[in-house]
Design a protein that fits this description.
About 30% of the residues lie in helices and about 25% in strands. A 7-stranded mixed beta sheet has the order 6-5-4-1-3-2-7, sandwiched between helices. Strand 2 and strand 3 form a beta hairpin. The longest helix is centred in the last third of the chain and has 12 residues. The protein is globular, with a radius of gyration of 17 Å. The two termini are about 20 Å apart.
């Protein structure tokens, strides 16, 4: 059986933490050090193919890139509906961007009810920057993520984003037919229970 599904991922965080760089590195396999800040909302598409023993489906992933400035929050709120995965990004060398993750979480909870809270991922970006006194410690970030029922990974959009690609791959490979139909009906609730130690089936991307 072959079918296509649409996955909506919204990426939130302060301006300058590298949200756009992560998205474009995933979709275009390139890092642009001069990438411009997002004005309002920008949507980027990536399609992957998942093949399992009894099921084959295409996944249209739509990354919704947001501007981290306060003046754009009213615009961002109107696009939260029907989001399947929330990604929160902070700069490991910027303590203020880390502290503001909780504000972004509260912002989302204002528009998305707790019972419909979707799978959330916290990303500490820019680990290529030389550590300083203000660097966010890994154990502090992962403890916070666990308290907030989020997965946590660290990466550098400049160097390597394999971790996030692997994580999303694990989520997608474990979707069953019933879950896929629920996604199509915008009733899906993805959470960290999809991330297990099960062996992944073969996947190919286009």
């Amino acid at each position: 059986m072959v079918l296509d599904i649409n996955i909506k991922i919204i990426v939130l965080g302060d301006i300058g933490v590298g949200k756009s760089s992560i998205i474009h590195k995933m979709c275009d396999k390139k890092f642009n050090p001069n990438i411009a800040s997002t004005i309002g909302i920008d949507v980027t598409h990536k399609k992957v193919h998942i093949k399992k023993k009894d099921l084959e489906f295409g996944v249209n992933i739509y990354f919704w890139d947001t501007n981290g400035q306060e003046k754009y929050k009213s615009l961002t709120s109107s696009y939260l509906k029907n989001t399947h995965i929330f990604i929160y990004v902070f700069d490991v060398s910027n303590i203020e961007s880390y502290r503001n993750v909780s504000n972004w979480k509260k912002f989302v909870s204002t528009y998305i009810s707790e019972e419909n809270m979707l799978f959330s991922l916290l990303i500490g970006n820019k680990i290529d920057i030389k550590p300083s006194f203000n660097h966010i410690k890994f154990y502090d970030a992962i403890n916070y993520a666990q308290q907030q029922n989020m997965m946590y990974i660290e990466l550098s959009a400049k160097e390597d984003i394999t971790k996030i690609e692997t994580l999303l791959e694990l989520v997608l490979i474990q979707l069953d037919l019933h879950t896929i139909y629920r996604i199509q009906s915008n009733l899906i609730k993805l959470n960290s229970s999809y991330i297990t130690n099960q062996k992944s089936d073969k996947k190919k991307c286009c």
